[in-house]
Amino acid sequence: MYIDMLIDGILDSYDRYGLINRNHTEDFPNRQNVVSILSDIQSVIFPGFRAAEDIDSVNIRYVIGQKINNIIANLTREIQKALIYTKAQTCSRKEIENIAESHCFKLAEKTAVALVEEIPEIRRKIQLDVIAAFNGDPAAKSNEEVVLSYPGLEAILVYRIAHFLYENGVPIIPRIMTEHVHGKTGIDIHPGATIGESFFIDHGTGVVVGETCIIGNNVKIYQGVTLGALSVKKNLQDKKRHPTIEDNVTIYANATILGGDTVIGKDSIIGGNTWITHSVKEGSVITQDK
Which stretch of DSSP H or E encloses residue 257? Predict the structure, then answer.
């Protein structure tokens, strides 16, 4: 009897407070499912590195084919739920009932397939990131070591996957992906950020890259760096709030660079523990004592 009362109280809270309970037409993407899909994508990008599996020249086509089928099927389902949920915020109940069977499924499947088609390009970019890490860190002994053990590389890989989905209009899921890897690595890269090639995050813990940040090619940043906004007011959500970092810039540990109008010119060096809210011309060396 007492257990029944406890259950009734919890069920009543679902009706009273909502948010965590969805009916069939308002399903929300499942975090565990998204993380599982992300793991499969990472395994396709780095076969044999991310999962305990025997892969050789004989079975690799079968193994990769099976993962791709799973990715497309499962990602389609989660994207569909994300699209329906987003549309449910503005549609009537009758309109919602028609969404699931038509437009959202087709769009979700198209986007899932497009992500799989993009994997060779993601692999090209992440290979450049691996090389940048190997060349930029004297402690790195091989590219394989970077892939297996560098948290910065994992955060960048997940960002590149999530960014593709973000750019293709997928709600919610890109944030689930980047926040998952944020929890693992301490590196917070918003999927909306624009990041060029050969990007290297050394050590990584505490790095923050904001949604509207633009980062060029051959940029290297160290732990504790914040590329953030001067203001977090909600009415600025559609404005450029985060800085632009041009090519070949190095930003050392615990530097903070803020503001949507702030541009760090190419070939600059930003010293550790600096606080910057204004633009810096190319070729500059900024240290704490200036």
Answer: strand 256-258
